[in-house]
Amino acid sequence: MKTVSKINGSEVEYICQWLVVAFGENVNRNMPEINKLKDFGGEVMHACDYKSGKNFRGEKVLIVRCGNSGMEVSLDLCNHDAKPSMVVRSSVHVLPREVFGKLSFEFAMLMLKWLPLRTTKVYFR
């Protein structure tokens, strides 16, 4: 699987047997068009179909995108001794799953009750 940077045109090739596509919001399956995907010899699955990393132990797995699903799949793969790599379109800002014992989303909503949006956005940048 090859990726091309939109910034400088550089190419990176990932050698793996598995490809997990983590596009879409929650359970809405969104499979992008990927050039030469039909030539990929390994298995391709959407994050909706991913159940556990136990079958991927020791395998190289490429995760496409870095939303909640992509991050959760990557974490699970690491916990099952797989070797995930992740490809994203642009830079990402990674938040912890929990802040002060609450999901980051819950914490942001709690902050919005007392703080203006611009202040809350600074914390979650």
Secondary-structure map with pairings?
Blueprint: E1 2-4, E2 11-13, E3 18-21, E4 43-46, E5 60-64, H1 68-79, E6 83-87, E7 98-99, E8 102-103, H2 104-114, H3 117-123
Parallel strand pairs: 3-4, 3-5, 5-6
Antiparallel strand pairs: 1-2, 7-8
Describe, in plain words, how this protein is organized in 3D.
By secondary structure, this protein is of the alpha/beta class. The chain has three helices and eight strands. The strands form three sheets. The protein has a four-stranded parallel beta sheet, with helices on one face. Strands 1-2 form a two-stranded antiparallel ribbon. Strands 7-8 form a two-stranded antiparallel ribbon. It starts with a strand and ends with a helix.
Summarize it:
By secondary structure, this protein is α/β, with parallel strands linked by helices.
Radius of gyration: 17 Å
Arithmetic mean pLDDT: 79
Beta-strand content bin: 15-25%
Q: Give me the number of helical elements.
A: 3
Cα separation of the termini: 31 Å
| Helix share bin | 10-25%
Q: Looking across the biggest beta sheet, what order are the strands in?
A: 4-3-5-6
Poorly predicted segments? none
Q: From the helix content, strand content and strand pairing, which structural class follows?
A: alpha/beta
